[in-house]
Automatic annotation (TrEMBL):
This is E3 ubiquitin protein ligase. Pathway: Protein modification; protein ubiquitination. Belongs to the BRE1 family. Residues 407-446 form the RING-type domain. The lineage of its organism: Eukaryota, Fungi, Fungi incertae sedis, Mucoromycota, Mucoromycotina.
Amino acid sequence: EQAVKTQLEEHRIILSAREKEIEALKRDRQTLLQDEDRLLSLFKLSEEQLLETEYIKTLQLSIDHYRSRCHDLEQRRVDLERDLDKMSAARKQLIDQVKTEKISQNMTMESEIRRMEGDLNRIRGQRDSFQSLVDEQKMKENREKESQEKIMSFATQGKTRISSLESRIDRLKNEQEMAGPFEKEATMYSNLKEQLIQMDILLSSIELIENRDVESILCFDTESLQKSLEKCNSHPLVKEYDQVLEESRKATLMADFFEKNEGHLLEEIDRVASIYGKLEEQQGKKVFDFSQKRDQILKLQAEVEKENELRKLNRNIEEDRIDLEDISHVCDDYRVTIDQNDILLVELQKMMKEKTKVFDEEKQLQESVKESYDKMKKKWEKMSQGENPMEQQLAEECDELRALLKCNTCRTRFRSHILIRCMHTFCKNCIDARLETRQRRCPTCSEPFGANDVKNFYL
């Protein structure tokens, strides 16, 4: 019993100590509550006061700024996409136009080049034929010139020969006229010579017939006759006659020669006259040939003008080709600028995505801060009202589950549609806004999607 009493006393002492501690805790709680009320009265602000604070105003201004900036960036992105579509369409149209123009120009140039090559080959052939004709004509003229020179030399030789023969004939005629007074002596000399020949014949016959005696007698007679003949021959008139006779014989021989060669000389004269006629004829032909050559020269000049036109056309084709190359270089420059604009557009899209991402993060952070503030406020109110913490925990879990069911983009509407490509869920309004603005990428994983990839589901 004593032990029980002592134990009871100890328990009473412990209980009194616990009661004192409880009382102290209550007093502390009361003081804390008073301090809390005092602090709350000092720092608790109404919503109007909170909205009038500088921090909230700056936050609101920054929110408005980022919202307007996001709207401007979105509008700018839409404009850039529209401009990009226009530029791509214009670029495609320009490329197609340049290709068609280039193909048509190449075809026309090729046909023109083929035609020009044909004309050039034809002109070259005509030029070669005309050149060969000119060379042949030159050779013919050279041959004609040589033949004319030969004919002229023959004519001059014949002329000199004819003049020399005429002078010789005149000289022989003069000599014959000078030998006219000695015709009688010449006839007598010829008769004597004939008689002498006859006598020689008779002597030879007598020698065959008669004997030696007769031969001696006849020899004596012949010797006497020969002596008498020598005496006659030694006479000066006979010598002069012999000279005249010799000259007359020469003259007769020359006359016979000229009579015999008269036909030949006439033929030579006729030949020279025909040669002169041919020369005159050739000169007339040359005049006709000159007219033909003038026509040929005009044709050659026309062909040369055509060839110059062909060269000019080739030069124009070369200039057109250089212009086409310049246009292709300009197109390349435009292509480079378009590529640079594409790169700039991609960078701007990246910057806009980063800004939108930062804005979404700030918005999510603001919402999370607001939610945590609301949670703390509700928790504090519940704690101040002395509610059960389990109910508070259940309410928090309900809020968390409700937040999970809501769209993580707008956080106001419940999830109702799913993207099949990435299996992320959002509300219908957010997906429709993405489809309308052509920003068809998942807000969570940035996976591209189309209208066919959106399906609705039911909770």
